[in-house]
Design brief:
mainly alpha; Cytochrome Bc1 Complex, Chain D, domain 2; 2 domains
Amino acid sequence: MPRKCYALVTLVSPLLSLLAGCGAPVHQGLARGKDLYNTCVPCHGRDGYGNQALGAPVIAGLPEWYVAGQLTKFQKGIRGAHPDDNEGARMRPMARSLNLPGDVESVAQFVATMKPPGGFSTLSGGNVAAGQTRFGSICFTCHGPQAQGNPDLKAPRLTSQADWYMLAQLQKFKDGLRGANSEDTTGQQMRVMASTLEDHQAMLDVIAYIRTLKPNP
């Protein structure tokens, strides 16, 4: 083979291999989700227990349908688009990095296999009795009697979630940072419910009662 032709083949062959690799099918599923979860570790932690300093919630053990639903909302700008939602703004590019068919579902599948933490508290000052009354009138119908969640209503389990995060999200719903998008039907429902909690104390009361429920029913 002439020297020039040989040099051309040497240059082009790796490029062709690279292009072929780009078109290769990606095997989705639990293993793929575990690999993709590495991009989540800096904020949510290796165990999925979250990071209060970064505003990252507990995600370990959340059901697939909920994780996939929220990631899709972030991807589409249905959640996290409000200019004052700093944590949401960080999540949007992370969600959009899951850009291959099945990536969202694979991550959701892996997160659902992670063991959720037991209940733990960082807040004080909540009145459990008052919170029980409010929970019964506001939260019970969607989240269930033990705050165990309801997939039919797209309501997540609350008992494994950090109390500081629940407080932050109730405030976001109340202030319109979350649940204001017309495509976010479940968020709009939560915004209405959060608006019935007239102040910070009312939010603390509800969360204090949730903390008395079984962590992982």
